[in-house]
Amino acid sequence: MADVPIVDLARPLDEVASTIRDACVRHGFFFVVNHGVARDVVDAMFAASSDFFSLPDDAKRTVVQDENNRGWTPHGEETLDPKHQTTGDSKEGYYIGRECEDDEIGLPLRGKNRWPDESSLGLRAFRAPMTAYYDACASLARRVMPALATALGLASSFFDDKFTRPTALLRPLRYAATASDPAAGVFAAGAHSDYGVLTILATDGTPGLQIHDARAAAAAAAGGSEEAWVPVPAVADAFVCNVGDLCERWTNGVFKSTRHRVVTTGAGVRLSAAFFWEPNFETDVSPLRECVSEENPARFEPTTYGAYILGKYAETHSGFDARTQRISYSE
Ligand SMILES: O=C(O)CCC(=O)C(=O)O
Ligand SMILES: [Fe+2]
Predict the structure, then answer these.
(1) Separation of 77 CA from ligand 1 center, angstroms?
(2) Domain span at residue 302?
(3) What is the pLDDT of residues 264-305, one digit of tens each?
(4) Atom of ligand 1 at shortest distance to CA of 232?
């Protein structure tokens, strides 16, 4: 099992920050408990997710993912690790973003959410439980960021004005009851690292998430061997948090964004929900002064979050149009 520390958010800030720092300089994964998200908010989100994904594809296609990255991603549509996969991820998902303000409409990747027509599709509820869970995750992210700042030797309020109009995306996921077969390139979710600053993940307790252990990989002579992948244990009532590529970049490599993947047994479906927390578009994400030194000179060019994220999309989304800054999805 991966050595993932448990961060108790009820403890004093310095103690929380110190545990987060230890985790982030190693691999960037930690659990949070005493997180303040009510159990029934999580349960209602999973119930809504399960109901939605159980609909026939024709019904789900009414809210297929749009050019602003909102809506349903069909099963198999995404391939997170094309080099090592022979089929698409055996999962489907649904992107819910921040309901943008009117002056943001038309700007890249911002817009209004797509919501299924609950009554005509026979859904008990969708928008309300998803919104409640989204808001709870945003509140939790706003509790974790001061600890992350403290862990970096910054003022605890450092990130406050950089997340007033965050790019915050909730993505409920359903993994099919398909057995992954790493040797054959079949994965529930291919190996990847997250793009953003912080990811908050809830799962239904079904195992599957694995993280890449760089030390084990180095020890196994032929890098990339299966021994390098270690499962993340299930911890009741905890969220899995991890820092992403933007955090690694912003901290000049001090905090690590670690590759992870999902491998399923095929015994049943697996539900999870990832919440991605990224700053305002215009935020300067040049390496932090506190993370640059003679021994660790700046490794990344100065840039803004907006330029960074649009660059990531241009690299990884074949349907991304650099001129219009829109994504098109093939049906
Ligand atoms: O479902 C999981 O356990 C992980 C999901 C994930 O890594 C992601 O959506 O980025
Ligand atoms: Fe991920």
Answers:
(1) 15
(2) 6-327
(3) 999 999 999 999 999 999 999 999 999 999 999 999 999 999
(4) 3
Asked if the ipTM is above 0.90, the reply is yes
DSSP 8-state class, residue 284: B
CATH number of the domain that 220 lies in?
2.60.120.330
For 160-178, write each residue's pLDDT tens digit.
999 999 999 999 999 999 9
pTM, entire model: 0.95
Q: Which residues contact ligand 1 via a Cβ below 6 A? A: 171, 173, 189, 194, 201, 203, 208-209, 260, 262, 272, 274
Residue 1 domain flag: no
> Domain for residue 226, yes or no?
yes
Q: What 8-state DSSP symbol labels residue 96?
A: B
pLDDT of 30 above 90: yes
Closest CA to 57 of 75, 71, 69, 45: 75
Number of domains comprising the chain = 1
**Which residue minimizes the CA distance to atom 3 of ligand 1?**
209
**Ligand 1 mutation target, pool 73, 195, 230, 262, most atoms within 8 A of CB:** 262
113 lies in a domain? yes
Q: 25: exposed, middle or buried (C-beta count within 10 Å: 0-12, 13-18, 19+)?
A: middle
